[in-house]
C-alpha cells in the first residue's frame, strides 16, 4: 500500500465462523498471536482453496491484481509464521465489505463461515484472548 493513499475496501463472500487457531495443548495466554485480516483470509481462500486464478479472484474482491497479490502474500506469510513458529492465528479486522451478491445465501454458506452484517472496518471484535486451551 502506498503511503497517503486510502486502502480500498475488499469485497468478501462471508466472515469466518472460526476466528482462532492455535497449537494443541498450549494455553492461548502462553502463545504469541498472529493477526490475519479477513481480506487476507479471503485471498487465501479464493486462490488456494477455490482454485481461482489471481485475475478472477482480484475481480471477485473488487481490487487490482497487485492489491490482491499483496493481501495473498501477507496472509500466506502470517500463516507460515504461525505454523512454523507455533503461534496462534486470530482472524479479525481489516477493511472489507460483504459481497452484496452473496448476502442472499443461507446463514452458513458451506465455506466454514457465516453471513455477517459488516460494511465497515471490523476492528471492534470482542477480544477473545481470554479463551483457554
Strand content: 15-25%
Q: Spell the H/E element sequence.
A: EEEEHHHEEE
State the name of the first-level CATH class of the domain at 10-101. Answer: Mainly Alpha
Radius of gyration: 15 Å
Could you report the average pLDDT, rounded to the nearest whole number?
A: 81
Biggest sheet descriptor: 3 strands, mixed
Which stretches are low in confidence, meaning pLDDT under 50 for 5 or more residues running?
A: 104-108, 116-133
Number of strands: 7
Q: What is the percent of helical residues? A: 25-40%
Task: Briefly note the structural class of the backbone.
Answer: alpha/beta
Give the N-terminus to C-terminus distance in angstroms: 36 Å
Q: Shape from CA axes?
A: elongated
Task: Return the CATH architecture of the domain at 10-101.
Answer: Orthogonal Bundle
CATH topology of the domain at 10-101: Arc Repressor Mutant, subunit A
By DSSP (H or I, 4+ residues per run), the number of helices equals 3
Strand order across the biggest sheet? 3-5-4
Give an overview of the whole structure:
With 133 residues, this protein is α/β, with parallel strands linked by helices. The chain has a domain at 10-101: Orthogonal Bundle (Arc Repressor Mutant, subunit A). The chain is built from 3 helices and 7 strands; from the N terminus they run ββββαααβββ. It has helices at residues 38-49, 54-61, 65-85, and strands spanning 10-12, 15-16, 20-21, 33-36, 88-91, 96-98, 113-114. Strands 3-5-4 form a 3-stranded mixed sheet. The protein has a two-stranded parallel ribbon with strand order 1-6. Helix 1 (38-49) packs antiparallel against helix 2, helix 1 (38-49) packs across helix 3 (65-85) and helix 2 packs across helix 3 (65-85). The radius of gyration is 15 Å and the shape is elongated. The model is unreliable at 104-108 and 116-133 (pLDDT under 50).
Amino acid at each position: 500500500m502506498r503511503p497517503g493513499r486510502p486502502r480500498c475496501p475488499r469485497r468478501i463472500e462471508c466472515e469466518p465462523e472460526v476466528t482462532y487457531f492455535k497449537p494443541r495443548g498450549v494455553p492461548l495466554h502462553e502463545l504469541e498471536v498472529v493477526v490475519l485480516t479477513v481480506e487476507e483470509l479471503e485471498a487465501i481462500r479464493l486462490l488456494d482453496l477455490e482454485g481461482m486464478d489471481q485475475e478472477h479472484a482480484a475481480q471477485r474482491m473488487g481490487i487490482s491484481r497487485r492489491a490482491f497479490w499483496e493481501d495473498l502474500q501477507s496472509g500466506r506469510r502470517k500463516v507460515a509464521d504461525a505454523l512454523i513458529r507455533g503461534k496462534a492465528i486470530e482472524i479479525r479486522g481489516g477493511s472489507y465489505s460483504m459481497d452484496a451478491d452473496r448476502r442472499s445465501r443461507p446463514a452458513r454458506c458451506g465455506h466454514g463461515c457465516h453471513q455477517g452484517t459488516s460494511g465497515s472496518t471490523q476492528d471492534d471484535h470482542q477480544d477473545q484472548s481470554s479463551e483457554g486451551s
